Model the fold of this input.
Amino acid sequence: MLMIKEMMSDDKPRERLIELGVEALSNYELLAILFHTGTKSQSVIELSKSVLHRFDQLKELEKVSFQEWIQMPGIGTAKACTVLAALELSKRITKNHEEKRIQIAATKDIYSHMKHRLSHLEQEHFYTLYLDMKNQIIATKRLYIGTLNQSNIHPREVFQHAVKLAAASVIFVHNHPSGDSTPSLADYKATELLEQSAKIMGVMVIDHVVMGYKQCYSIKENRKYHFD
Done:
């Protein structure tokens, strides 16, 4: 098993990072640092290259589950956990950065903010966006996974976060895996239930947006929007 420290100096990604900066490293070198070791038949660099060759785009890495990682040759529990932790940390940093500067002025802003979270999912995911007095996002929280109906939506959980965050308003967002953003009867009933609870809590409901493939539907505006 060839470790990074056993490689020639010019080929060591850690040495190159220290000398040239992390920006100078290729994708496979960054992955090699996370993997730390190769296998009996592959160096850590070769292993990293073989893993990346499985994907057409780098962003596909964030969709790979733990079980899928450990099924790849040369990837065990330790390597899978390290990569998943690094990817999740990166997503949280990006999300926090985005949420500090995003202001919601129109339905297109909601779509832009949520499309990367919801476009590839095979189940319905229900999110709540919590906003301040200036309609700037304080937090984006996933609260439910599964088909939306009144029995599985819990207003208490939705609005306890609003209280903790001192949110002035909320926006509900969920996806339709079919790609059609047209709301169902259950979507309308769930919206009505949440709006009733919001009035009691003194929180404004700005919208409930249903996300589809390159489109979304604003329940408050009763209008479907299409995007390129």
